[in-house]
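Handout, section B. The chain below has 268 residues.
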Amino acid sequence: MEHNRKDRIKDEDRKALGRFLLYVIVMSLAGCIVGFIIGVCRKKGISFTFGGEGFLNALAYAMPVCIFLFNAVVFFVLHHIFRKTKELYKACDGEDEAQLAQIESGMNYCQFITEISLVLNSFLLGAGQHVILAKMEFLTIPEIHWRWLACSITVCFFAGIAVSLFYKKNAVNIYKQMNPEKQGSIYDLHFAAKWEKSCDEREKLILYKAGYKAYYFGKVICVALAVISICCDLAFETGLLPLAMVVAILLSMDVIYLCTGSRLEKSS
């Protein structure tokens, strides 16, 4: 029995090793080709930067409009979903499983949209301020204009954050009304820990599975971003900071995951 188990393990390793080596060879060849193309372009003086003075000026004026339109769309979508969900909740008697499922689905959509909105708002704020402030030496627009543009982007950013937090809080509060055992406020810095403690075993299993999947795909994305950072350094001379930040995120994820797993294993 033990001999058969060893043969099976060796066979699995042999098959997996072949696919792994093929993957490494293909990705290495792709990296060599990309690096060769970038090197040839740089030798011939081909610039990888884009957008001249006119482009930067137009982008500076466009950024406040983009962040305003984005938050306006988010507001109307969240308002529509939350209003429908609240109406279903008021009409629900607590016995109709289909209605309860619809209510939970609506709250999940609200949570999903608010989380995405918070992330994209941060990106739009950074991108807008970068274009207006970090690139202002290249802009030909009047100084008073870029000051108002910077203020407009900041105001739209905080307005978008306020809208997202408002609907997230209301969605969480409806869920707490449906499940009185749930605890925690989204304004509490320890909200995640308190919410986890108030979950039952099924909900905790869902949280843990979702968390592990996020960790796994986060590692894959970090590795991809590390490769992109190296390519961007070759092409755009972005420096080592982007790569260092990606590596720091990857290391922190690995260290926290392994240390937490070891601690939980010892405690159990």
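Note. The chain has a mean pLDDT of 81. Compare this with the example in section A.
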